[in-house]
From TrEMBL:
Protein's name according to its UniProt entry: Glycoside hydrolase family 3 C-terminal domain-containing protein
Residues covered by the PA14 domain: 478-631
Source species: Lysobacter auxotrophicus
Origin: domain of life: Bacteria
Keywords (A to Z) from UniProt: Hydrolase, Signal
Signal peptide: 1-32
Gene Ontology molecular functions: hydrolase activity
InterPro entries: BXL (IPR044993), Fn3-like (IPR026891), GH (IPR017853), Glyco_hydro_3_C (IPR002772), Glyco_hydro_3_C_sf (IPR036881), Glyco_hydro_3_N (IPR001764), Glyco_hydro_3_N_sf (IPR036962), Ig-like_fold (IPR013783)
One Pfam family here: Glyco_hydro_3
SMART domains xrefs: Fn3_like (SM01217), PA14 (SM00758)
Family: Belongs to the glycosyl hydrolase 3 family.
PROSITE patterns: PA14 (PS51820)
């Protein structure tokens, strides 16, 4: 499925480019129609990008140069250089820039094991990124999350399931990570011989995967074998094969050096060994860590000089601007070294076409309609379908269309955050799993009961249902339903509102981008009605019409401040900053037949924004009892639980039992959910578990007691539809685990130990709960006839392996054919087996297909010889294993590697 046909792309691009040239070219960048290249030779497109960049840099003052080496680079009006912020995110869709298509989280993309699909995803993301950038530029907006340099993908190895940011990666295997990562990079950067579509960034280079709480202080010291065989290979592939234009350093030290100022990593390995030609950006405020936390040097100017000299050209932060001029004056670094670093940065901007006429830049003509297009929406659903892993099925799935009553129970069933993970954009119309099931089963009675909070001690802001539109009026006598919303460009509800409209329900989650963009996507905002990304406030007012008399639990939730008034009397007042969506509750007596004046006020300070107005009606059972009763009254129970990005993620400040700083201290399902699951199971009704999470969960009890378990990850904007497609059999699941699922009581190695021993399927000595590569289907597949075209080979001789795969079931489906290499008599400590090939193939019932792989020993069997300080291929016998997972080997055959 592709997002735009070639004919559509040509037609729409031509129209958009014509409009661009007629109306907007001067606003797009430094180029303007009345500018002569002779006056400004850096605009002369006949010269190389490097020559032009060097010329431009040579005309800057030292202070101007230093300011251009920070992510928020200011304009230099006298040189016609527009402001530019290098910080942009595109992990699974354009993030933090308002409305954008949200694909499944990166770990879910990896679970597809589908490289061609990844190419479609990254092409769609880069189309939206280009379209959004030029729309922002036309409006004179050049801030953060509005540029063309994207700090994705995250190709760190997910070595430990406790890491909260593991969801951002492609899993635990270097080969899978490399194949998915290089495809993502190529899709982002495009295939134009002259201009980059975007700049992708491989991060975080190189030994970085938790703990989050220690990332500014710890020193990673893996053996060089682990470094070379686990932590570096994906980066090497992205540099050499993907031609990635940017690499981001990490916060921590590696062998005593800051990863963002490491001569070993950034000079010896990245540039000298691998031939990297692009630029390096620090992780955000990592330059501060060099002197303040790592204490490698004593002052900011020493840190800035060290970082630039060792190869970090761009500072995400605010150290270079004030400190580099001081460092030059003190003799810590020469201005020539600053010039060389900055020239690399401007070469990148030149290559993105920022200083050239739009008519010459192929990518400038992508129309804004590509953003959140129907084609991308459909692609998001397809990716989610392919990402879903069927962990267990005793025959209860797929669900029958004849089922009359379905209970959908659990804390993430109707939670949009369960779709998004972290680093996300604002989807136009996200479909929760509850809504997806309702859409897929229109003839069944679908009853929802949340049951419990996500984790113990967390007052979830989605605990009560939103107040529905039929109980709200914007004013007395109005036929409209909802409340009157007044949107202000400040935190104080002051002055004239910039936007006034009626909102049917108050339930919003905005990413770090502007709510305006979300409004524009629905065609509601007009000129002058913009709302900023930060520092805004909203007042909703009107009438509340309770349907029954009694005590209502009213809920107001906000990120940041909220306060609620009934008949002008305050009932909830939380007018303060909050780093998450925080819920407050109040019990209020209301009478049916009366109209109450209601007013909800909200302000947003910075970062993510959200607000909810909800209630629980009189007589409603306590949530836990309500859920159990719903199960008793149903024919089947779909439990939807697990985690969300509110509890696992990057360096969080909130902690709960089992969680610390965004990481996990307990890999089990949270205790609140375990208790509910056991109660649901005790009703005797079949319970299907659907898990949302970005990491492995120890669901031993569920594996022993429940008939079906589905891993949905964070499935993106159409995740609810995709889950329902799998539950009802409209899609045949074929996702595979990109990580090992360990048993709940498995004694994992120390989290801060970066040795790979007993980690991941490559080194784990125990029995997993579910192995790497595992995933079931609604059909069956048989393997036969594995053949190798040679019985022995030298390190440079390729070995071709072919195998027959047949669909032996009664319905069409995909099989992920996986090839592993296993040393039969290893001469040194090494992985027990390693993935070295995979293909996702679609087969009709009874259909067979020959699947082939090519093994090159010098690449696929190399290990690090620490004595020789080089890679080597050990001669001896190796086994080719082909099957459906790392533990489900169907056919195998040995061959010899000769000296």
């Amino acid at each position: 499925m592709n997002q735009l046909s070639d004919a559509d792309r040509t037609s729409r691009t031509g129209l958009a480019l014509a409009l661009w040239l007629a109306l907007c070219a001067p606003a797009a960048g430094a180029y303007a129609a009345d500018t002569k290249a002779g006056d400004r030779p850096w605009l002369d497109t006949s010269r190389s990008f490097e020559q032009r960049a060097a010329d431009l840099v040579s005309r800057m003052t030292l202070d101007e140069k230093a300011a251009q080496m920070q992510n928020a680079a200011p304009a230099i009006d006298r040189l016609g250089v527009p402001a530019y912020d290098w910080w942009n995110e595109a992990l699974h869709g354009v993030a933090r820039a308002g409305g954008a298509t949200v694909f499944p989280q990166a770990i879910g993309m990896a679970a597809t094991f589908d490289v061609p699909l990844m190419a479609q995803i990254s092409e769609a993301i880069s189309d939206e990124a280009r379209a959004k950038h030029h729309e922002f530029a036309r409006q004179g907006q050049r801030g953060r999350y509005q540029g063309l340099t994207f700090w994705s993908p995250n190709i760190n190895i997910f070595r430990d399931p406790r890491w909260g940011r593991g969801q951002e990666t492609y899993g635990e295997d270097p080969y899978l990570t490399a194949r998915m990562g290089v495809t993502f990079v190529k899709g982002l950067q495009g295939d134009d011989p002259k201009y980059r579509k975007l700049d992708a960034t491989a991060k975080h280079f190189a030994v970085h995967s938790g703990p989050e709480a220690d990332r500014h202080t710890f020193d990673a010291k893996p053996t060089e074998r682990d470094l070379r065989e686990t932590y570096l290979p994906a980066f090497e592939v992205l540099v050499k094969e993907g031609d990635v234009d940017s690499v981001m350093g990490a916060y921590n030290r590696v062998y005593g050096e800051s990863a963002s100022a490491s001569r070993f990593l950034l000079q010896d390995v990245l540039r000298k060994e691998w031939g990297f030609k692009g630029y390096v950006v620090s992780d955000c405020w990592a330059i501060v860590d060099i002197w303040k936390h790592h204490k490698i040097v004593a002052t900011p100017e020493e840190a800035a000089a060290l970082a630039v000299k060792n190869g970090t050209q761009l500072d995400c932060g605010d150290t270079y601007k004030p400190s580099l001029p001081v460092a030059v004056r003190k003799g810590l670094i020469s201005e020539a070294e600053v010039d060389a670093a900055l020239t690399q940065l401007f070469t990148a901007r030149m290559r993105l076409g920022m200083f050239d006429p739009p008519s010459q830049v192929r990518w400038a003509g992508i129309p804004y309609s590509a953003n959140q297009s129907p084609e991308h929406d459909a692609l998001s659903r397809k990716v989610a379908q392919e990402s879903i892993v069927l962990l267990k099925n005793d025959g209860v799935l797929p669900l029958s269309r004849e089922i009359k009553r379905i209970a959908v129970v659990g804390p993430t069933a109707d939670d949009t955050m369960a779709l998004l993970g972290n680093y996300y954009g604002t989807p136009a119309a996200p479909v929760t799993i509850l809504q997806g099931i309702r859409d897929a089963a229109p003839n069944a009675q679908v009853v929802h009961a949340r049951g419990v909070d996500l984790v113990e001690g967390r007052d979830d802001p989605a605990a009560n249902p939103l107040i529905e539109p039929q109980y709200l009026r914007p004013e007395a006598g109005s036929t409209e339903r909802g409340l009157r919303g007044e949107y202000f460009r400040n935190r104080d509800l002051a002055g004239k509102p910039t936007l006034v409209r009626v909102d049917p329900q108050i339930g919003f989650r905005w990413d770090r981008g502007s709510p305006t963009d979300n409004l524009m996507a629905r065609g509601e905002a007009q000129g002058g009605q913009d709302v900023p990304a930060d520092d805004f406030s909203i007042r909703w007012s009107g009438q509340l019409l309770p349907p029954v008399s009694g005590t209502y639990q009213l809920e107001a939730a906000g990120n940041d401040g909220v306060r609620l008034y009934i008949d002008d009397k305050p009932v909830i007042d939380h007018w303060q900053n909050s780093d998450r969506l925080h819920a407050e509750h109040a019990n209020v007596e209301l009478e049916a037949g009366r109209a109450y004046r209601i007013r909800l006020e909200y302000y947003e300070r910075e970062r993510d924004a959200g607000v909810r107005l909800a209630w629980r009606m009189p007589g409603a059972k306590p949530p836990f009892e309500e859920a159990v009763q719903a199960a008793r009254d149903s024919d089947v129970v779909v439990f939807v639980g697990g985690l969300t990005g509110d509890v696992e993620g990057e360096e969080m400040t909130v902690n709960y039992p089992g969680f610390a700083g965004g990481d996990r201290t307990d890999i089990r399902l949270p205790a609140t959910q375990r208790k509910l699951l056991e109660a649901l199971h005790a009703t005797g009704k079949p319970v299907v578990m659907v898990l949302t999470a970005g990491s492995a969960i120890g669901v031993d009890w569920a594996k022993q007691n429940l008939p079906a378990i589905v891993m949905a990850w964070y499935p993106g904007q159409r995740g609810g539809n995709a889950v329902a497609d799998v539950l009802f059999g409209d899609a045949n699941p074929a996702g595979r685990l990109p990580v090992t699922f360990y048993k709940a009581d498995e004694k994992l190695p120390a989290f801060d130990d970066y040795a790979m021993r007993n980690r991941t399927y490559r080194y784990f000595q125990g029995e997993p709960l579910y192995p790497f590569g595992h995933g079931l289907s609604y059909t069956t597949f048989a393997y036969s006839g594995l053949k190798l075209d040679r019985a022995s080979a030298s390190p440079t001789q390729p070995v071709k392996a072919t195998v027959q795969v047949k669909n032996t079931g009664k319905r069409a489906g995909d099989e992920v054919v996986q090839l592993y290499l296993h040393p039969l008599a290893p001469r040194r400590e090494r992985a027990t087996k390693e993935l070295r090939g995979f293909q996702r193939v679609h087969l009709q019932p009874g259909e067979s297909r020959e699947v082939s792989f090519t093994i090159t020993p010098a690449k696929d069997l190399r290990t690090w010889d620490e004595a020789r300080d080089a890679y080597a291929v050990d001669p001896g016998a190796y086994e080719v294993q082909v099957g459906a997972s790392s533990a489900d080997v169907r056919v195998k055959q040995a061959f010899d590697v000769t000296p």
